[in-house]
C-alpha cells in the first residue's frame, strides 16, 4: 500500500518558483525558440503572409526544395565512441581565411521586407560571430551602407549580370572599393522562376496596399508601422523596381550569360570568384577552367527550376572532379546544424544558409539572426561531439552516408 500525506509548505516552496517576468517582448519570443523550425513558426506569426511566403516558398510545386530537405533527412552518421570530445573546434577555412563557423550568410533579395533592420542587422551579426556575409544585387541596403554598418565583417558581393553591362561593372568596382573580398556570380537565373505563392499573394515591389494586404496588415501592425516609418523599401542597386520579382528578373537580367562572362569577370575582379548555381559536374569543370576559385552547388533554394538536381547529392562527384583545383560549397535545404556537418563530411568546404537566418530576422530583427546562429552553432558542436570528432576539419566521408529512399 502507498502511504500518502500532505506536503509540508517547506517542500512546496522550491516547486513554486515562477520564472521572472522578462519585459522585453523580443527576448521573450526568442527565448522560446530551440530550433530553426521554432524561429520559422514565430516568423510566420509576426509577418504578413505575402512576406513570409516570399521567404518560405519555392518555384512551381516546390519539389526541388522538398527534395533538398529530404536528402538531409536521409543522412545517417556513423559515430565513433570512447573519444575525448570535451573541446571542439567549429572553425573552417573558406577561401584562405578562417571562419568561426562552417557556414556563411548567403545572399538574399529584398531583406528589409522581412524586417526593417534588414541587411545591416545580418552583416552586424556576421561581424560579431566571425562568419562571412554575402550581399545580394537585389539587396535593399547599398554596398557602401553595409560596409559602414559592419566594417569588420568579411563581406562578399553577389552579382547578377544585366543586359546592360555598364551598371554591373559599376557594382563590381563599388564592391572592390568598399572592401568586399569575394565576388559571387549567380548563373541559374536566365529567367525568373514561377514562384506561385508570390503570384497568388499578389506580391509586388514595393508591396501594394490592396484590400487583401490591408486586412492582413491589420493583423501585423508592427510590421506595417516599421515599413511606413523607415526608409522606402526599394532595391539599393536597381533603378527600376515596379512589378513582381519575376517581372524584374525578366526585364533586367541577361538570359544570354555564357562562360565568356565568367572569363571576363575573372579578368576584371581582383579578389576571389565564386560561381553560384552550379548543378552538374560538367558545369563545375567549365567554370573552374574559366578561373573560378569556388563553385556553389545550388538550385537557388528551389526558387528557380523545379525538379532541379539536389545540391547535397552533387557534392561527392563534383569534389572528385574539381576539388583539387577549387573549393566546393553547397546550399539549399539547410535547417539544422547537423545538415551543415553532413555536407562537410560529404566533401563540401563550407555551406551557405538563407532561409534559416531570414526566419530569425523576421522573428526578432538582429537579435533573431543572432539566435539563429546560436541555434546552428549549438547543433554543430553537439553533432560533432556525438559523432566523435574534435573539429570540423576532421570530418570525412566515412562519417556519413545517405540512406536509400523509402
Task: Give a brief description.
The chain contains 18 helices and 12 strands. The chain has 406 residues and is of the alpha/beta class. The model has no long low-confidence stretch (mean pLDDT 92).
What is the count of β-strands?
Answer: 12
CATH superfamily: Aldolase class I
Mean pLDDT score: 92
The major pleated sheet works out as: 8 strands, parallel
Oligomer: single chain
Q: Are there runs of 5+ residues with pLDDT below 50, and where?
A: none
Strand content: 5-15%
Helix percent reads 40-55%
What is the secondary structure topology, with strand pairs?
Elements: H1 9-12, H2 25-31, H3 36-46, H4 49-56, H5 63-73, E1 75-77, E2 92-94, E3 97-99, E4 103-105, H6 111-114, H7 118-129, E5 133-135, H8 143-149, E6 155-159, H9 165-177, E7 182-186, H10 196-201, H11 211-218, H12 221-229, H13 245-252, H14 259-268, E8 272-278, H15 281-289, E9 294-297, H16 311-322, E10 327-330, H17 337-346, E11 350-353, H18 355-387, E12 400-402
Parallel strand pairs: 4-11, 5-6, 6-7, 7-8, 8-9, 9-10, 10-11
Antiparallel strand pairs: 1-12, 2-3
Helix pairs in contact: 2-18, 3-18, 7-8, 7-18, 15-16, 17-18
Amino acid at each position: 500500500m502507498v502511504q500518502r500525506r500532505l506536503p509540508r509548505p517547506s517542500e512546496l516552496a522550491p516547486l513554486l518558483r515562477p520564472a521572472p517576468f522578462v519585459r522585453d517582448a523580443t527576448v521573450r519570443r526568442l527565448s522560446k525558440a530551440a530550433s530553426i523550425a521554432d524561429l520559422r513558426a514565430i516568423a510566420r506569426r509576426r509577418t504578413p503572409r505575402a512576406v513570409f511566403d516570399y521567404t518560405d516558398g519555392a518555384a512551381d510545386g516546390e519539389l526541388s526544395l522538398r527534395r533538398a530537405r529530404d536528402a538531409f533527412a536521409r543522412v545517417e552518421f556513423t559515430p565513433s565512441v570512447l573519444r575525448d570530445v570535451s573541446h571542439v573546434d567549429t572553425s573552417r577555412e573558406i577561401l584562405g581565411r578562417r571562419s568561426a563557423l562552417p557556414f556563411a550568410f548567403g545572399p538574399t533579395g529584398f531583406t528589409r521586407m522581412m524586417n526593417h533592420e534588414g541587411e545591416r542587422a545580418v552583416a552586424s551579426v556576421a561581424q560579431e560571430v566571425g562568419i562571412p556575409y554575402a550581399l545580394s544585387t537585389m539587396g535593399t541596403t547599398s554596398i557602401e551602407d553595409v560596409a559602414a554598418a559592419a566594417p569588420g565583417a568579411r563581406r562578399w558581393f553577389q552579382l547578377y549580370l544585366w543586359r546592360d553591362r555598364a551598371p554591373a561593372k559599376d557594382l563590381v568596382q563599388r564592391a572592390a572599393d568598399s572592401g568586399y573580398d569575394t565576388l559571387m556570380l549567380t548563373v541559374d537565373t536566365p529567367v525568373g522562376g514561377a514562384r506561385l505563392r508570390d503570384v497568388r499573394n499578389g506580391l509586388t515591389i514595393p508591396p501594394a496596399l490592396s484590400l487583401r494586404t490591408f486586412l492582413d496588415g491589420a493583423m501585423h501592425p508592427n510590421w506595417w508601422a516599421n515599413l511606413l516609418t523607415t526608409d522606402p523599401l526599394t532595391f539599393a542597386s536597381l533603378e527600376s523596381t515596379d512589378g513582381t520579382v519575376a517581372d524584374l528578373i525578366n526585364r533586367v537580367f541577361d538570359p544570354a550569360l555564357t562562360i565568356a562572362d565568367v572569363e571576363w569577370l575573372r579578368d576584371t575582379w581582383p579578389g576571389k570568384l565564386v560561381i553560384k548555381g552550379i548543378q552538374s559536374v560538367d558545369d563545375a569543370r567549365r567554370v573552374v577552367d574559366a578561373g573560378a576559385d569556388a563553385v556553389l552547388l545550388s538550385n537557388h533554394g528551389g526558387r528557380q527550376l523545379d525538379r532541379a538536381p539536389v545540391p547535397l547529392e552533387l557534392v561527392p562527384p563534383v569534389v572528385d572532379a574539381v576539388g583539387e583545383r577549387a573549393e566546393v560549397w553547397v546550399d539549399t535545404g539547410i535547417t539544422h546544424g547537423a545538415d551543415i556537418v553532413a555536407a562537410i563530411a560529404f566533401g563540401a568546404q563550407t555551406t551557405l544558409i538563407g532561409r534559416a537566418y531570414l526566419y530569425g530576422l523576421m522573428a526578432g530583427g538582429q537579435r533573431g539572426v543572432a539566435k539563429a546562429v546560436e541555434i546552428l552553432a549549438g547543433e554543430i558542436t553537439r553533432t560533432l561531439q556525438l559523432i566523435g570528432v574534435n573539429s570540423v576539419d576532421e570530418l570525412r566521408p566515412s562519417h556519413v552516408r545517405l540512406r536509400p529512399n523509402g
